[in-house]
Write a structure and sequence with these properties.
Helix content is 35%, strand content 25%. Strands 1-7-8-6-5-2-3-4 form an 8-stranded mixed sheet.
């Protein structure tokens, strides 16, 4: 059985494109996952957040790909000063509306030179943001300063393509990890490592499977999948779910670099 592929719809936008981020901003206001799930702890994201909080005390910090600035503002309780940087103006506007005295936000693309002075920051982090920022962060962060990164793992949700053929695309290899290594090689940091953390995420309901696939898309995309595939998705979900929900791999890469 092959399920409906929502990418055939004319309104489908490639996830993580500039247009897609702008649409997420319009539809949701904030960059938040719309599906319900529970994630076993510790996991890559919780470990990364703890590591960032433990390394920014009284320092000037850059948050690359800050989204609507929720984590930026959390970090401001520890940092001396923090700047949030994101390509989506709608997200930045929300961050600015909730800002504090030691927080500022800048709109811009990490695919270009970052609009900051050489050695301006003590530490920079990329929390699920663009890998394209790594090369110029070597300039924007002072010598001996740290650069930390958190990115989805290539194994993230790998079971979904097997369980729901057609709905989720099949992938192979490690394209995300390969790109991270490529960016780090370009950057020529004093040292740089990538660590993988994997645990289990439990999707609560069949509708959450669809929300994962249709995240950031126009409402008509989700409506089309619901109308076409909800019954089949529900059957597959119920066959493979535990009492906690449908188990899928929750995988993250953590980057640690010294300028």
């Amino acid at each position: 059985m092959k399920l409906f592929n929502p990418e055939v719809l004319t309104t489908w936008l490639p996830p993580h494109s500039i247009e897609w981020y702008a649409q997420v901003s319009r539809l949701q206001g904030k960059y938040l996952y719309p599906w319900q799930s529970t994630i076993a702890k510790p996991n890559g994201e919780s470990l990364f957040d703890q590591e960032v909080m433990g390394n920014i005390q009284n320092l000037k910090i850059l948050d690359v790909g800050c989204g609507h600035g929720e984590f930026t503002i959390q970090c401001s309780s520890y940092a001396k000063e923090i700047v949030g940087f994101d390509v989506t103006k709608g997200f930045v506007d929300i961050g600015q509306s909730n800002s504090r005295a030691n927080v500022s936000f800048v709109v811009g693309s990490a695919k270009k030179d970052l609009p900051f002075e050489e050695g301006e920051f003590d530490l920079a982090y990329i929390r699920k943001g663009p890998t394209s920022a790594y090369p110029d962060l070597k300039r924007a962060v002072r010598a001996e300063g740290k650069v930390l990164g958190l990115h989805p793992g290539d194994d993230q949700g790998k079971e979904l393509a097997e369980l729901f053929p057609g709905l989720f695309p099949l992938t192979s290899g490690t394209p995300i990890l390969d790109m991270i290594h490529h960016r780090l090689e370009q950057s020529r940091y004093q040292s740089a490592t990538v660590e993988t953390f994997s645990t289990t995420e439990y999707l609560v309901s069949p509708a959450d499977v669809i929300k994962v696939r249709c995240f950031g898309q126009c409402p008509d995309v989700m409506e089309a999948v619901l109308e076409t595939n909800l019954s089949d998705i529900t059957k597959i979900f119920e066959q493979h779910a535990s009492l906690k929900g449908l188990p899928i791999t929750y995988s993250r890469y953590i980057v640690r670099a010294i300028v």
